[in-house]
Amino acid sequence: MSKLLDRFRYFKQKGESFANGHGQVYNTNRDWEDSYRQRWQFDKIVRSTHGVNCTGSCSWKIYVKNGLVTWETQQTDYPRT
What range does the domain containing 66 cover? Predict the structure, then answer.
């Protein structure tokens, strides 16, 4: 059966109920959670600034995985003046 039809079958499954029927436990495949967790893993964090045309010289935390930038967040620990 196709994956699409298998997904529709999910809504017909009866799971074990608990809390007087307010919750149900399903034994479903949760492999997608591993790929989600791997998306946010990184090898190291480096500090950098943006490109040549950026005049603000803002500091960024660069998250690197396998030598590639995976994502970045702006650094917030600027020195006081």
Answer: 14-74
Instruction: List, as one string, the DSSP characters of 4-58.
Output: HHHHHHHTT---EEETTTTEEE-----THHHHHHHHT--SEEEEE---TT-SS--
Determine, yes or no, domain membership for 2: no
Q: Give, for 69, the enclosing helix (H) or strand (E).
A: strand 68-74
Does residue 81 sit within a domain?
Answer: no
Domain count of the chain? 1
Q: Classify residue 18: in a domain, yes or no.
A: yes
Within a domain: residue 79? no
Beta-carbon contacts of 42 under 8 Å, excluding residues fewer than 6 positions away, are 63, 64, 65, 70
pLDDT digits (tens, 9 = 90+) for 32-59: 889 888 888 999 999 988 877 777 778 8
Tokens of 61: 């935390």
